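Kindly review this record before class:
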Amino acid sequence: MSVSEAGWLASANYMGYLLGALSAIGTRVRSTVAIRAGLLVIGLSTLAMGLGHQFMLSVVLRAMAGIASAWVLVFVSTWALERLALLGRSDLSGASTQVSARGL
């Protein structure tokens, strides 16, 4: 694989990640379903990249994996924050609702 081809694969992954994050905004699906589907797509597309030897197919598969990776990140975050809220532990979310004088 050339440096140029590696760059194309990385760019496809980044573009997929951006598209995945943007598409997750308007998607109304349960977090657990989105996480499982995303992990399945990541696994299958990565496996398919190892089995195929066509460069353009690898670019498309890498973009698909990027989209799925963003979905997993967004929906795992959503799921975790919802679970913390249900457990009454929103203080563990990393977001502070209070502003201190030292924090300014």
